[in-house]
Amino acid sequence: MFHVKRVLDGPSRESCWLYSRRPPAALQRPASSRSKEPQISYTSLLFALLTGVLHAAASPVIVIGGAHPNLILIGVVLVTVLRGFGPGVIWAFAGGLVANLLTRDPLGSVPLGLLLVAALTSGGERLFGRLSWAYPLAAVVVGSVVVDLISLGVLQLVDPPLAAAVPISRIGVAALLNGVVAAVVIVPARMLAAQGEGERRQAW
After folding, report:
1. Quick count: other Cβ atoms within 10 Å of Cβ 122?
2. What are the beta bridge partners of residue 4?
3. Residues 6+ away with beta carbon under 8 Å from 27
């Protein structure tokens, strides 16, 4: 069998080979098998559930400047930036639901806010581009404000006196705190994401 090479204007590797004994790596697997691949692994789903449990256990205990860190929010934003919108949504729903069931927040408020944050993070990434460090940290800060405002709005509907007792300044302090925590964990998160990507390519 001969290698027949076509020279095209575009740089696409797939379009440069009509017949080949060894086609490019991206074409070696059938398209049907690639479309059936899950967007999130069972290990990542387990991490989402464990992060929800960790958030419910640690966040109420850690108090800095009158604010609590939102660990599940940080996880959702970083997963959305590093792995994509699909895994971010699953983290938002699974981890957010677990955290919601283990805390005193109004039922449904945590996953609702996290799903909105995952959508905003994915949309903002397409709009502003994937900046290596600035965008994930900015997304965590903005997402923290969004989640707190949603929680405060839901709490206003459920228990107005309790919502009125929450100072607005705490939202800003919590956003800065979450940004600092995200800056600490973003390096190991990138390393884990790169390792998982390498193992997935080797499996292909």
Report:
1. 18
2. 19
3. 14
The CATH architecture that domain 39-203 belongs to is: Orthogonal Bundle (1.10)
Helices (H), 20-108: 31-35, 42-58, 71-83, 85-102
Q: Are 56 and 96 in contact (CB under 8 A)?
A: no
| Integer Cα distance of 102 and 158 in angstroms | 18
Q: What is the pLDDT of residue 78?
A: 94
Residue 53: CB atoms within 10 Å = 16
Tokens found for residue 160: 């107005």
pTM listed for this prediction:
0.77
The answer to whether the CB of 139 falls within 8 A of the CB of 118 is no
Q: What are the residue ranges spanned by the domains of the chain?
A: 1-37, 39-203
pLDDT in tens, 154-163: 988 888 887 7
Q: Tell me, what amino acid is at 154?
A: V
Q: In the structure, what pLDDT confidence band is assigned to residue 130 with cuts at 50, 70 and 90?
A: low
- Quickly tell me which residue has 């940290």 as its tokens: 137
